[in-house]
UniProtKB/TrEMBL annotation:
Keywords: Hydrolase. It comes from the Eukaryota. SUPFAM superfamilies: Nudix (SSF55811). InterPro entries: NUDIX_hydrolase-like_dom_sf, NUDIX_hydrolase_CS, NUDIX_hydrolase_dom, Nudix_N. PROSITE patterns: NUDIX, NUDIX_BOX. One of its GO terms (molecular function) is hydrolase activity. This is Nudix hydrolase domain-containing protein. Residues 119-242 form the Nudix hydrolase domain. Pfam families: NUDIX (PF00293), Zn_ribbon_Nudix (PF14803).
Length: 279
């Protein structure tokens, strides 16, 4: 998958005549469904937005945000995905080894031989626009207690990303929303998470903090508390949003947040935004 992405980047995305995709949006049931149709256009070239991004970005590897055409994402650590100590099926201890035909260490049960795979988690949420303001929640739980975030949380089995984003928004902000479009997908390989944030609007003007929020508040763009945000993903998403608003329209963004190994979870500034694409 990653190799496919690298090939896509190296062979097409930086060419002005490359194959582009233009979305068509269909609204039904309060949700926006977006299908992708190929189109040729030099006027919608994605560009490497981070070079133009707000000074609030503090990348630790500045070269990676200026020229990514030759960059390659770091390989995952060889021991990643081996935190499972006991078998979820029989309870016996696991051993960490590379199964036959695989190339990564896995947790293999020493009794029944079953393999427990660990894969990245999906976090979904909403950036809610209302009267030129955005809705943020102050966290009532760790990590990042007392810091501000967009309403977001882990996607559940059996739901779509949009359903999860709407559900999390209801749970954390007591807000009923209509999703307008995807906005950001941000991968954070170091911690095995992918964030998908949708643009949304309030169905009515009501919102109130849920059990995991101390407070919910609408912030004018100039008042967004960038110094008190909970996560790097929210810092990037809100910066991209502000930059888009300055240009007059929200784009759709993809990027990789590469946090420096050993970075404290509370340090949301120590990262580089790589492979940033927008349309
Ligand atoms: Zn077992």
């Amino acid at each position: 998958m990653l190799k496919a992405m690298q090939m896509l980047i190296s062979t097409s995305s930086f060419s002005s005549s490359s194959h582009r995709f233009r979305p068509s949006v269909h609204i039904y049931g309060g949700f926006s469904s977006i299908s992708l149709h190929p189109s040729h256009s030099s006027s919608v070239n994605p560009y490497f937005h981070a070079a133009h991004a707000s000074r609030r970005f503090t990348p630790f590897r500045s070269s990676s945000i200026r020229s990514q055409s030759n960059a390659t994402p770091p390989p995952p650590p060889s021991d990643r995905g081996c935190s499972i100590k006991f078998c979820q099926w029989c309870g016996a201890a696991t051993k960490h080894e590379i199964p036959y035909g695989d190339d990564k260490p896995r947790a293999v049960c020493t009794n029944c031989g079953k393999i427990a795979y660990q894969n990245p988690k999906m976090v979904v949420g909403c950036l809610i626009e209302h009267e030129n303001k955005v809705l943020l929640c102050k966290r009532k739980i760790e990590p990042s207690y007392g810091l501000w975030t967009l309403p977001a949380g882990y996607m559940e089995l059996g739901e779509s990303a949009i359903e999860g984003a709407v559900r999390e928004t209801w749970e954390e902000a007591g807000a009923k929303v209509e999703v307008l479009s995807p906005f950001t997908q941000l991968d954070i390989p170091l911690i095995g998470q992918t964030y998908i944030i949708f643009l949304a609007k309030l169905k009515d003007s009501h919102f109130s903090p849920g059990p995991e929020s101390l407070e919910c508040r609408l912030f004018a763009h100039a008042d967004i508390p960038f110094d008190s945000l909970a996560f790097s993903s929210m810092l990037v998403t809100l910066n991209l949003y502000i930059e888009d608003m300055k240009r007059g329209a929200a784009g759709i963004h993809y990027g990789i947040i590469n946090k420096r190994p050993g970075t404290s979870p509370s340090d949301i500034h120590d990262f580089s935004l790589d492979y940033h694409w927008m349309r």
